[in-house]
Amino acid sequence: MDTKWLEDFISLAETRSFSRSAELRHVTQPAFSRRIQSLEAWLGADLIDRTSYPTRLTPAGEVFYEQAMEMLGQVNNARALLRGNRPMAPGMIDFAVPHTLSLTFVPKWIKSMETGFGPIGARLMALNVHDAVMTIVEGGCDLLLCYHHPRQPVQLDPGRYDMLVLGYETLRAYARCDRAGTPDFLLPGDLRSPLPFLSYTSNAYLGRMVDLILSDARKTPHLERRYETDMAEGLKMMALEGHGLAFLPESAVTRELKQKQLARADGGIPDWEVQMEIRLYRERPSAQRPGKPVVGRLWDYLVQPQSLKRRSTKAQAKSKDTNDRSGN
Hints:
By secondary structure, the protein is of the alpha/beta class. Among the domains are: 1-83, Winged helix-like DNA-binding domain superfamily/Winged helix DNA-binding domain (Arc Repressor Mutant, subunit A), CATH 1.10.10; 168-277, Periplasmic binding protein-like II (D-Maltodextrin-Binding Protein, domain 2), CATH 3.40.190. It has twelve helices and eleven strands. Strands 3, 4, 5, 6, 7, 8, 9, 10 and 11 form a nine-stranded mixed beta sheet that branches. It has a two-stranded antiparallel sheet with strand order 1-2. A hairpin with a 6-residue loop joins strand 1 (48-49) and strand 2 (56-57). The chain is flat and about 60 Å long. The relative contact order is 0.13. Residues 83-88 have low confidence and may be disordered.
């Protein structure tokens, strides 16, 4: 059995779409289908119910999904240990983070924690959401930071992974504006003159969130796709140049809104926005896989009530002040 078959099956179980999973796995759909069939032949069981749409797992597939996650995690963790990747930096925390959060959320979050927890050695892997999730499943990182929405959930077994909600992010439409803050483009647009639309690619998590916004909108949007990328930062730069409107995370445009370079292109109507959770995951420590001590200490700090964190920070500050006065 090829471990790629397990990765393919896990992707299919999460997306429920052969075409989307083939795109995420960077293979053609026929090749992807053949690999799933090879896995089924090796197991001697049908994993996919091909009589339904969208794609569903068979009862055997539901059972094997959990086993596939476990097997893949063990294989990749063993590979990492044997290659010596993990022991090289026991005090360094490996994060898998989507591109946007790596630019907007992570720097301020780490800075805010250092006051109470202390300096953090962080190694960041900036990926798309799907690859970031696969990284923690494969044992390639200590912590996963990602977006989550009930209609586009992150499929991680709660019996195996611990989770914390660190904050929230709002996704809405923005466009270049004049000095008065009036946007160049305003939703929903006009049928005879559709708005130029700067879009995410189909495999981007934020792209699927935009699809939810547009499908739920009470007014039909009139958009003409002009540009595609899987990077929110790329869409922002195109919007700043006046190429069209883009749906962007609020944290990515804070400076541009303040400087009146961008403005909301939704007229302030909440129909055109969606709120996502910012979640942190870790694999739950066990006797076989205890994890790095520094990760455990950080997790314990994060789950403390805010009142205890404030007391800890004050105690540290008082201790530092006492040491300064004594000349230590």
